[in-house]
Amino acid sequence: MTVTLHVCITCRAGQPVLEGEAVPGARLHAALTAEPAPEGVRIVPVECLSACSNGAAVALSAPGCWTYVYGQMSDADAPEILAGAAAYAATTDGIVPWRERVQIFRKRSLARIPPIG
Amino acid sequence: MTVTLHVCITCRAGQPVLEGEAVPGARLHAALTAEPAPEGVRIVPVECLSACSNGAAVALSAPGCWTYVYGQMSDADAPEILAGAAAYAATTDGIVPWRERVQIFRKRSLARIPPIG
């Protein structure tokens, strides 16, 4: 299954940003795309996930699957986000068993949405 | 277009709940379904939208559309949620112009997610 990891690249994560400096969302996207994506994971930048007070935010979605949104992510979390995305891609419904879920996904969930249709 | 309004019916919205008393999510669902749903809107209860610290939560989704998640909703917000859901159902992509968006949706967004695919 190919899943999509949307990454908000405009997120300021509530921090002041100096002119010419990349915002936290853009830094997170850069960290996530520094290495080849895990198998079955497509990383797509997006302008604003409307989770501004809980940014930086990412979302995992795939046809027929539950969608998950996570907040308070930083570039330091990139390896764990990618591991979590790979685990999500290995499911058929988007639901990774709790014990197998990466720690940051357990603790920083903003929302999950049932399959659309 | 038929859209889905998911309503978390297990949400406690951070409040203590007395035994035998309906939780805030269940009360919200009851208020939303007290009248016939707006045209094109399907109201579906769901157990946990994983937005527990920002509950009660609802989500609007439809095939090919942006998904929106809103938090801090209560049964008193039911009429405005239904108006917002009707406006969402009248779009082709899920994006209701800002000025036409109901106030509670402007102020209590938890996240939005691009169309899945």
UniProtKB/TrEMBL annotation, chains A, B:
<protein>
    <submittedName>
        <fullName>Putative metal-binding protein</fullName>
    </submittedName>
</protein>
<dbReference type="InterPro" id="IPR036249">
    <property type="entry name" value="Thioredoxin-like_sf"/>
</dbReference>
<dbReference type="InterPro" id="IPR012863">
    <property type="entry name" value="DUF1636"/>
</dbReference>
<dbReference type="Pfam" id="PF07845">
    <property type="entry name" value="DUF1636"/>
</dbReference>
